[in-house]
Every structure is written in structure tokens, then in C-alpha cells.
Design brief:
Blueprint: H1 2-5, H2 24-30, H3 32-40, H4 44-51, H5 56-65, H6 68-89, H7 97-128, E1 141-147, E2 155-161
Antiparallel strand pairs: 1-2
Helix pairs in contact: 2-3, 3-4, 3-7, 6-7
Length: 162
Amino acid sequence: MNIVRQGLEIDTRCPMCWRLDEDGGHFFLKCKMVKKCWQHLLLEDVRVYLLTLGSAKEVVGHILRLSREKQQLIICLLWAWWLGRNKANAGERAPSVFEIENRASVLASEVFRSQQATTNTSREAMKVCHRWSPPPADVLKINSDGAFHEKKKDAWGFCGAR
């Protein structure tokens, strides 16, 4: 719908259900197919609550206040759904609800395992190394950071060590 508002003439129907105009609310929360994904992943109560919120910012804020496990599953669901939408929008076969649910579950499990491994590795590293040490002479280490604020300019920075 945002593209149409900019003057381009395109089909605005949801590429997953081919019914209503596609906007964020329909696509992620109201589409008949995405509803099934939320239900099968036992997240229907969250989806229904998100529908009561007035903005995308409120939706994200609520998701970030949920338990880590629910956050990860919801984010993985939204990612898998978006990937499926892009395939359908490009003329490829749209993945089934089962395929999207499965992909979301697998992604969430992989994220959880990765975090567990990182946490364990970090704890072990903290026991071994108590302070920062420079990299070897033939390595350039660059630390970077970036930030964005909607009412201010974006910022970035880096520092290097030899």
C-alpha cells in the first residue's frame, strides 16, 4: 500500500491469500494463512493482543517484553512469513503454513542453541582472560558501533588496534 501511495500502479492484494490490500497489519497479523501459523505455534493469544495495539512501535515493544523464548519464536515466525511472502510475490510457489511453521520453529531452536553455546563460551573465556589484550602483530582489530534515532541523525564509529 505504501508503494501505491507513492504513485505506482501495482496489485496491492496480499500475495499469500490474494484477498485484501497488503499492509503490515493484514500481512503479519490478519491474513487467514498467517493466523493459522500463529495458532499452530500456540501464539494466538499474543497475536490477538497485538491486534489491539495502535502502532508498529507498540507491537515491537510488546514483543520485546515477552519471555525470551516467545520473542525468538515470534521473530522467527515473522521472518519465515516474510521470506515466504517474498517468494510468492516473485511468482514462486508460496510455502504452506506447515512449511512456514516448521522453518520458524527450526530457526528459533537454532537461535536458542547458538545463544547457549555463546553464553557457555563467554563464561569460559571470562574465566581465562581477565583483561583486553591487543591482537597479534599481523592482525588489525577493528571495533565498530552504529546507532539510529528517528529524530536525530544516524551515527557510527570505529577504532582499530594493531
